[in-house]
């Protein structure tokens, strides 16, 4: 091979490397940056001793929509259980709205840990909530929190089940009540959220699981749903396998299976799912979750 040909091949190889690096850099990240890397001295940092927690029921069943502005009713059926989710005029509560649930559950768990009396009503400031869940603290973010409360209160859940002797149905909202104190300039300073009795009972009976703080950094609602399914089903196991079609149904996704497959592939390639390594088996259409090493 002549020197000139070798030089040309080197140039082509280097160019390919540069393009590959550029393509990798331009890939959208599934994780948002940490907005507040240092603990704000003025935040009541309630999670020093108790980690973020979510309830088992909402981790198992798709109670929350994966699309903002979704106004459709949805029905989920599994093992004889029928769950109907209906919106009000504000739409149905989304996976991002669920952050309020997680925040309230974590506050109750912290109170239990400290030996305090616990209540269905949880009080906090929106400033603390926004910073703790890795959100911005602009006026529009305060307004979005109020809209999330409206959707949580207005979303109606009906659960029906049947056995050999009887059929049971119950209905509830995702939160029972909410209360906000605003200053005259419109700034919201204090919030009180009353969670449903069944959710309070679940938390009091410790039917909850810890979740990673990086959960709040996941940009896509579907990624959050995939994470909580992995957390729920892996439990204390080292790994969990599930067929893509079943994962699609359990996620509550209203998109087609082809698009869902692409989303799972993208999440697997990014290797950004907190706590778990996600692998997709193309031949078997199988998704495998494996616990990350704590040292990683």
Automatic annotation (TrEMBL):
The lineage of its organism: Bacteria, Pseudomonadati, Pseudomonadota, Betaproteobacteria, Neisseriales. InterPro entries: Replication_initiator_prot_A, WH-like_DNA-bd_sf. Keywords: Plasmid. Pfam families: RPA. This is Replication initiator protein A. It comes from Vitreoscilla stercoraria.
């Amino acid at each position: 091979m002549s020197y000139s040909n070798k030089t040309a091949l080197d140039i082509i190889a280097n160019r390919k490397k540069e393009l590959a690096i550029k393509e990798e850099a331009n890939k959208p990240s599934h994780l948002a940056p940490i907005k507040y890397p240092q603990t704000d001295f003025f935040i009541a940092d309630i999670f020093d001793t108790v980690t973020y927690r979510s309830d088992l029921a909402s981790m198992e069943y798709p109670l929350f929509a994966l699309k903002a502005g979704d106004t459709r009713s949805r029905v989920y059926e599994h093992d004889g259980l029928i769950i109907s989710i209906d919106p009000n005029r504000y739409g149905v509560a989304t996976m991002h709205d669920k952050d309020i649930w997680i925040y309230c559950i974590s506050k109750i768990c912290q109170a239990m840990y400290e030996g305090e009396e616990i209540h269905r009503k949880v009080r906090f400031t929106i400033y603390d909530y926004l910073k703790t869940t890795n959100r911005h603290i602009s006026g529009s973010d305060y307004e979005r929190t109020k809209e999330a409360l409206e959707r949580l209160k207005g979303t109606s859940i009906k659960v029906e089940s049947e056995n050999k002797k009887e059929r049971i149905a119950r209905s509830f909202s995702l939160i029972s009540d909410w209360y906000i104190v605003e200053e005259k300039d419109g700034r919201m300073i204090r919030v009180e959220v009353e969670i449903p009795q069944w959710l309070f009972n679940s938390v009091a009976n410790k039917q909850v699981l810890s979740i990673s703080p990086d959960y709040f950094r996941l940009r896509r609602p579907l990624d959050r749903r995939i994470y909580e399914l992995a957390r729920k089903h892996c439990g204390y196991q080292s790994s969990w396998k599930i067929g893509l079609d079943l994962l699609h149904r359990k996620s509550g996704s209203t998109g087609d299976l082809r698009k869902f497959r692409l989303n799972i592939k993208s999440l697997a390639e990014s290797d950004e799912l907190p706590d778990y390594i996600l692998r997709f088996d193309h031949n078997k259409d199988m998704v495998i979750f494996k616990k990350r090493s704590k040292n990683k």
